[in-house]
Fold this sequence. Notes:
The protein is α+β, with helices and mostly antiparallel strands. The chain folds into 2 domains: about 5-205, no CATH class; about 225-255, no CATH class.
Amino acid sequence: MRIVSFLSLIFILFSVLVIPASAAYDWDNSITVKKDSMTWSYTETYSGDRSIIFKKYVDMEFGNDDGFVAAWELLKTDVSMSKSFRQSIEDNMDVKIDNTSKNVILLGVETDMSSELLGITGEERDIVNEYKVFYDFKVPLDESGSVMWFQGEPETDVTISLPEGMELKSVDGIDNESVKETSKGTVIEGKFGFTGEVVIEYSVEEEEPVVEGNNAANTTANTTKDSSESATKTRLETFLDRLFSGNTDEMLNKLNLDGSNNPD
């Protein structure tokens, strides 16, 4: 997702006029793709003078502009950022499968604003905010699609993790690209290019269907029944069952093997 906000404009202005090179702002992306869903996690980091600017922004925009960020202001910021994130994605979906987003459902957005925002706005602190966006796919990737498109913030770090069984054919739009295979699937690392667009071409192994017919169920049931019946019979009865196909109970009565008809 592109970062488009009043705060971004402030940072651009201050970067040119005021903020020294030692001040830092980082925006990292971690995209985890599964066959039926996806999570896009963002980590936003402020340090040095930029942390002061962000704290003052929170105090002015969501608080009472008294030079101090209280807990209620942080909570209000959290809720507002979550809504802004969701609205931004709804207006411009940042994930497509085969050039369309009709198969992609935006489930929700979670935000975790840093507790380092609390306190006096003039104090420098390392502020790390985290955001997670959850998506669902109406049709799993192994049943549709062969190309995924992502719109991220240009020149920011990105890691894309593909699931096991999803073969990467090609990737375009990532600078300093690195691809490695792990036990859990393929991992792509690098930076979004100057357009922020990334396209990956893939194929997914089709899982063989598991056949569960009535015959298998009946076989299991019959085996269980036979085992149960065998457990209640004597060793001789079991032997006679194998030897004769008739009813062994009647035969045993005639032979008086159970001793019930023996005279005292």
